[in-house]
Amino acid sequence: MEKLLVEGGKALYGDVAVSGAKNAALPLLAATLLTPGRHVLGNVPDLRDTRTFLRLMEDLGVTHERQGDTVTIDATEVRDAEASYDLVKTMRASVLVLGPLLARRGRARVSLPGGCAIGARPINFHLAGFEKLGVACRLEHGYVDAEVPGRMRGGCVYFDIPSVTGTENLLMAAVLADGVTIIKNAAREPEVGNLIDMLNGMGAQIRGKDSDRLTITGVKSLRPANCRIIPDRIEAGTYLLAIAASGGEGRVTNCQPAHFASLLAKMRQAGFGIQEGGDCVAVRQPLVNAGAPPGWGAADIKTLPFPGYPTDLQAQFMALMTLSNGISVITETIFENRFMHVAELQRLGADIRIDGRSCVVRGQGVKALTGAKVMATDLRASSSLVIAALAARGRSEISRIYHLERGYERLVEKLTALGATVGKENE
Ligand code: EPZ
Question: Ligand 1 test: best mutation among 232, 304, 312, 331, most atoms within 8 Å of CB?
Fold first, then answer.
């Protein structure tokens, strides 16, 4: 396994271009299973998770080739195969093959994902939704055996919680169903909108994009896709926070500011200068008032479904707040165990107290953190440690960085271009 070495305490300056969104690429790759032919997807990030997903699709009989950030998928042949436990446990988004396989072949066998570091991660809403469309889901030996005789029929699906992949799975199941499907309390994340645009471009009839009520009128067939993955709003936010926490200034380019407006509002509340362009966002350090300490103020966040503050940027914002001149309260409402980064941030000198679903972060000013050996536990917690290590005085070592490689393309290269001193080493 590899570790990341970071010489912290250096302000970061410059531009960083955002890659395609991991959490859009995965459902859009799955959607190519819906119909035979050659699909072309642009701006597909080359990540551990997208490579894993493409391997799963090869197991299902699909071939693909990558040229730069364009992936061409030939889904002419799709055979019965199962998404095995060994694969699904490494990437729970594999459950996204359920919807398209049920629509294309009428059956699918996928391992239940099991839990992960941040929570139990059940898929009961997905399965209950499929059953509303006439699918029989049988659970045994840790697998879901889902089957529907003939075409699925349109139905009414209500999500207790606006599940992102749940909404995506049901969209992919409903586009070829016989009749109209309504999804109520649907997720409104931009990645869901990217999937809706792709499916409608293939000939689907989906209305209600960006709202919590989606209406899908089933069609008999679809044509291959030719579309682009949206920029990764979580990667964009991660780099903005890294530049801010380091005491530097810079721009995140090739992004869609509207997709992470909640973060921009919170960074402004903390005192940073945030300037939005068409496809870029610039961050500048707060103006220091005479007699006031250098640095930024505190801001509270509470994670919520889009357009609320994203849970995938909770850990990264916490890293910034450990260096503030105030006290902030960070509340996580989406996942039950998403404070794994707290103990590691404390090793770097952070003053954080966990109180149920909230953390009280007592900022100690911009020089608060000192380098240390820390361990990555999950994708976004790892990026929080990178932000803190870059701001900390001295050297840090972050182990188990395979977590990072799941969701951040060319991380070392991009950070180095901003002036960071980072490198990888075998553990
Ligand atoms: C997606 O996960 C993202 N993953 C996650 O990003 C993200 O954190 C999450 O949405 C929330 O925004 C992908 O898109 C591949 P949910 P998903 O279903 O769809 C509960 C990252 O770091 N729930 O919206 O799995 C669930 O336990 C990852 O990139 C059920 O109870 O999340 C959670 O508490 C991490 N039953 C809440 O709903 C279900 O059937 C929201 O989960 C489904 C979900």
Answer: 312
Per-residue pLDDT of the chain (427 residues; tens, 9 = 90+): 899 999 999 999 999 999 999 999 999 999 999 999 999 999 999 999 999 999 999 999 999 999 999 999 999 999 887 887 888 888 889 999 999 999 999 999 998 887 777 887 889 999 999 999 999 999 988 899 999 998 999 999 999 999 999 999 999 999 999 999 999 999 999 999 999 999 999 999 999 999 999 999 999 999 999 999 999 999 999 999 999 999 999 999 999 999 999 999 999 999 999 999 999 999 999 998 888 888 999 999 999 999 999 999 999 999 999 999 999 999 999 999 999 999 999 999 999 999 999 999 999 999 899 999 999 999 999 999 999 999 999 999 999 999 999 999 999 999 999 999 999 999 8
Please state, in angstroms and rounded to a whole number, the distance separating the CA atoms of residues 145 and 123: 13
Can you tell me which atom of ligand 1 is nearest the CA of 118? 35
Domains 2-19+231-426 and 22-228 belong to one CATH topology: yes
Residue 235, helix vs strand vs coil: helix
Contact, 146 vs 98, CB < 8 A?
yes
Q: Is 156 a catalytic residue?
A: no
CB 427 within 8 A of CB 4: no
Indicate whether this model's pTM tops 0.70. Answer: yes
Structural domain spans, the chain: 2-19+231-426, 22-228
Query: Which ranges in 94-189 belong to alpha helices (H)?
Result: 98-105, 124-132, 164-174
The superfamily (CATH) of domain 2-19+231-426 is: Enolpyruvate transferase domain (3.65.10.10)
> Three-state SS string across 324-342, please?
CCCEEEEECCCCCCCCHHH
- Ligand 1 pocket, Cβ-based, cut-off 6 angstroms: 22-23, 26, 93, 119, 121-126, 161, 163-166, 187, 311-312, 334-335, 379-380, 407
Mutate to test the pocket of ligand 1, among 161, 331, 340 (most ligand atoms within 8 A of CB): 161
- Is CATH 3.90.1150.10 correct for 22-228? no
The tokens for 38 are: 């050659």
